[in-house]
Predict the structure of Phosphoglycerate mutase.
Amino acid sequence: MTITDLYLVRHGLADGDGDLSPLGREQADRAGRRLSTVTFDAIHHSALPRAAATAEVIAGHVRAPRHACDHMMDRTPYPSDRASYPERWHAWLDGVPAGERDPDAVRLRAAVAHLGVVGDTDRRELLITHNFVIGWFVRHVMDAPEWRWMSLYQENCAVTVLRWSSDRPPAMISFNQESEESRPFTAS
């Protein structure tokens, strides 16, 4: 049996310019210290300043190759057919700026297909991204209705761990665990 563990971390709290606030830097540092006991094969992060800065702080504690990854960009799944979405969310969807829309979640589906796979060897990767991206990955793993990504909230610098196994369906190992300096993070 081989496994792939994806550790998803939402970026730290941002300031008005989109960079990390002092609290966001502190959140990222705590997350990095907590994740320092985990050996990662790679760190993938969004290129947006708040996620890139979070990745930089965490990488001070976690030794793994890191890179900006288009799959981690901030996206909002945007359905072309809203029949499967509760009506109460339709007005909210209308307010999503065109540049943030991911029509029918094509790019988010590609992210899951690219990263949520099992190979010949075990793999553990850290993904530093945005709330809706994490919600989409969790919704996928839980095989929940597509609109359920909207109801999942991830705290800044909290950790969610998802596992793909060669002999069973994907599973959620942990969800939205905030950093606790006294407790290192392990998903085993």
In short: The radius of gyration is 16 Å. The domain at 3-177 is CATH 3.40.50.1240 (Rossmann fold). The chain has one domain: 3-177.
